[in-house]
Specification:
The protein has 320 residues and is of the alpha/beta class. The chain contains 12 helices and 13 strands. Helix 1 links the parallel strand 1 and strand 2.
């Protein structure tokens, strides 16, 4: 079983944090023992460009991995993404993890005036883009004639050594996108399925049994593609985290917020409330039952970031 890895996705914006505060925060994550600093890719005010933010993190740390969770393939051409990812990988001395997805949040598309195609079309684009991007990392010149992209003898994305390029993260909730992940990703992200933007339905569906089914979809696609499953890692982002001695109250509150039963909130793996020891136990059980070893968390409160590192990450580090 793979050892635990832990990522952090802080929801930090520069209108409340100066550059010095951002740099201090990044150094703190490294010091506290988080493995990876992730940034998302959205257009609304609370987020800034992940490439710039991760570039600044890369040059101010030595061991902390950086990653996108995830780029939306529809926002940037795959040639642009290939060069950006290669640059981040070189800038960080190999510490960058390249997360890319098919897009899901209608608000981003509407605000930017980008057509929100049906899921199958967006997933087709994702798979074509992955082929182009990997080609640009591994070949001197890449050409591609697909349904969505046509590339003509494009130069290599960067001075990457043979066999050295970013690990690819592809995440999703449905069978089609997780099959793409099984065929192409080094790290498969297991997410809620939100095809209609309805988080109430998504949370209700997202049980441990559903997670295990999602993993099987990715593994089956990998086998059909003659991939070695030993080299595939599974990751899950947990946006709702709280260390509390009264988890019942926290679950009741979020159940009311999403109009679901308390039992449904408790059963959802991406809602994690409880004492430190309860959270440790839940993460151990989740790894044992599903094989997921890589967890990232939506943490923004400094006190929680410290406490989580000390009382959850450190004990789990000792478990092989």
């Amino acid at each position: 079983m793979r050892p635990f890895r832990f990522g952090i996705m802080p929801y930090i914006g520069f209108w409340t944090h100066s550059m010095n505060e951002w740099v201090k925060s990044v150094k703190l994550y490294e010091k506290l023992g988080y493995d990876t600093l992730f940034q998302c890719d959205h257009f609304y005010q609370a987020t800034y460009d992940p490439i710039a933010m991760l570039a600044s993190a890369a040059v101010t740390t030595e061991k902390l991995n950086i990653g996108t969770l995830v780029f939306d393939v529809d926002y940037r051409h795959p040639v642009v993404l290939a060069k950006a990812a290669a640059t981040l990988y070189l800038l960080s001395n190999g510490r960058y993890e390249f997360g890319i997805g098919a897009g899901w949040q209608k608000r981003d598309y509407y605000n930017a005036g980008i057509k929100f195609n049906r899921p199958s079309k967006r997933i087709e684009r994702l798979e074509e883009a992955l082929k182009i991007i990997r080609g640009m990392w591994t070949q001197e010149n890449t050409s591609f004639d697909g349904k969505h992209y046509q590339i003509n003898e494009i130069d290599r994305a960067g001075n990457l050594s043979e066999g050295e390029y970013p690990k690819i993260i592809v995440g999703g909730g449905g069978k089609k996108v997780l099959s793409v992940a099984g065929r192409h990703a080094d790290i498969v992200g297991i997410n809620m399925s939100v095809p209609d933007g309805n988080f109430t339905n998504a949370i209700r569906r997202h049980t441990k049994d559903r997670v295990m089914l999602q993993i099987e979809w990715a593994k089956a696609a990998a086998k059909d593609y003659s991939r070695d499953l030993y080299n595939m890692e599974f990751q899950m982002h947990i946006p709702e985290v709280m260390i509390t001695d009264e988890p019942e109250l926290a679950y009741k509150k979020i159940a009311k917020e999403y109009d679901i039963a308390v039992e449904e909130a408790v059963a959802c793996p991406t809602i994690l409330f409880g004492s430190s020891s309860q959270i440790v136990t839940k993460l151990k059980e989740l790894r044992e039952d599903t094989g997921i070893n890589y967890f990232s968390f939506g943490l923004n409160d400094t006190k929680l970031i410290y406490e989580f590192a000390k009382t959850v990450i450190r004990p789990l580090r000792k478990i092989t």
